[in-house]
Specification:
The complex is a heterodimer. Helices cover 90% and strands 0% of the residues of chain A. By secondary structure, chain A is an all-alpha fold. In chain B, 27% of the residues are buried. By secondary structure, chain B is mostly beta strands. The chains are: A mainly alpha, B mainly beta.
Chain lengths: 239, 123
Amino acid sequence: MIDPGSKPSPVSAVQAARLLAALEATKTAAAHANDEQREASAGLGRQRAELSAVQESVRNLVSRGRDLRNTLQVLRESVDRAKLSALNAGLEGARLGESVGKALVVMSDEQRNLLARALDALEEHGTLLAELERERERCVAGLSQLGDGARQTGAAFSRAEQQSQLTCAFLEQMRGDFSELFGADPEAARAMAETAAHVRTAATSLRDLTQRAPLGADALRELLSPLLALIPSQEEPRQ
Amino acid sequence: MAQRAGLLVRRGGELAFLPASVARWLLPLPRLTKVPWDSAQMALVGGEVVAVLPLGEPSGELLLCELDGQAVALSGLSADRVGFWPASNTGVEVDGVAVPTLDLSEALKEFRSGRPSAPEGAP
């Protein structure tokens, strides 16, 4: 347990500076991640709105398809009746006899042929419409799945955003606790870390100098000894 | 060869001939009403009640005929075409194929013999 009242040792100050820098970087990254998530969530919301519009269009398509089918049924009935009318005209012509009614019978037969073609075309339209309806059903099912997926993704984004906010809050709390333990001024801790790095460099230079000019090195070591005491033992120059 | 005028109908996929003197009018199948305690069916055609002889599965058409001065309607037939065709022994010859005349008297006889007996207590 660290006593908040005690002054940090130089080593712990270096580590504290590193930790603080890492903490701040983590917090910045978490904040950026939070922003990205919020933006992605907003984008997803827009996509869901567009998906809803497409689903509405498909629903309208269902209604239009029903109208088309009804119209097709009316057309089929009308052509059927027209065919019966043509046959009735032919029957009248047949009753009149070949010499008088032949023309009427021929006309009626021609009409019947044309109407039979119209009926065939209507049947084909009915088949095409049925195929379109099957395609539309597949679209409806696909859109429904997409909607479910978008809803689940939206919920996941929402949970991630909450977690991200919690992480930011937690990191902020850690930073506060950290400052309380290792000093309120993170800049000072950072400066201390930089100084330690410089001292470490000086120690390395001193080690080289010891090998090349032992007397001068001894004099310098005497001068630098208070500083060398501040850096970790593994960084001490080898004797 | 003598020509016969009339209507070709399909009855269960088979072609049959009806003379123009018998076949009067084709109309969409109206609502048919069964006569109580009888297999007979009735339809209202042009304001008149006519007996309906079912000769097959409903086809959506009703053929109004005249038999011995009586109106009778036939259901279960599908009208094919009208015309003049050479007469044959059993009916007419259509594109080299003999098409028999639809025997309505036989159909009427079957219709009458197939009538179920009235249940006890029936009026």
